[in-house]
Amino acid sequence: MKNILNIKFIFIVSLIILAVISRLIGFIPNFSPIAAIALFGAAYFPNKRDAFIVPIIAMFISDLFIGLHPTMWAVYLSFALTVLIGFNLRKKQTVVRIITSSLLSSVLFFIVTNFAHFLFYFPHTLQGLTQCYIDAIPFFRNTVLGDLVYCGVLFGSYNLAAIKIKELKLQSI
User: Fold this and answer.
1) Fold of 2-169
2) pLDDT (tens digit, 9 = 90+) per residue, 34-66?
3) Helices and strands in the chain, H and E counts
4) Partner of 45 for a Cys bridge, out of 50, 98, 130, 155, CB 3.0 to 4.6 A?
């Protein structure tokens, strides 16, 4: 059983590491693997604590290279909330459920991070709030695309590998 645990854990962590590396070499604003990592980790890590820690550490390590800003707290909060969405995928994963979770996490990220941006950089008026969200719309497209692509890669790679590697088919790690 220990061998099975190691194979599955190593495979999951390897997929996550590859996704983090892609964030470091990424060149499209907001096209990022972190929300997908949060959803994927929540679906597959048996320890819920790990599901929260892994995307936050992945984000922090890559942020050390990319840079930090005053609204980072909102980014981290949105990914922690995305883990909660991902817990819905623990028992049953279908294409529709994964896509729905991915889209929900994109919308959540958009709302939370842009509200924080509004608090720091826009006049605290209804017009300022409206303008903040309007200015963010072009980035939202990239967020949605990134979340969908990376969810497809992570969940798809895992399920394709599970066809060949019997230890990955087992539900618990």
Assistant:
1) Arp2/3 complex 21 kDa subunit ARPC3 (1.10.1760)
2) 999 999 999 998 889 989 998 888 888 888 888
3) 7, 0
4) 50
In tens, the pLDDT along 105-115 reads 999 999 999 99
Backbone angles phi, psi at 171, to 5 degrees: -65, -40
CA 118-42-48 angle, to 5 degrees, is 105
Give how far Cα 18 sits from Cα of 13, 23, 34, 136, 165, Å.
9, 9, 11, 28, 19
Q: Is 7 helix (H, G, I), strand (E, B) or coil?
A: helix
- Tokens, residue 133: 């969200």
Look up residue 162 and give its two tokens: 């599970």
Structure tokens at 138: 């072009």
Backbone φ and ψ for 31, nearest 5 degrees, come out as: -95, 90
- Identify each DSSP E strand in the chain by its residue range: none
33 within 8 A of 15, measured Cβ to Cβ: no
Write the DSSP string, 123-134.
-SSHHHHHHHHH
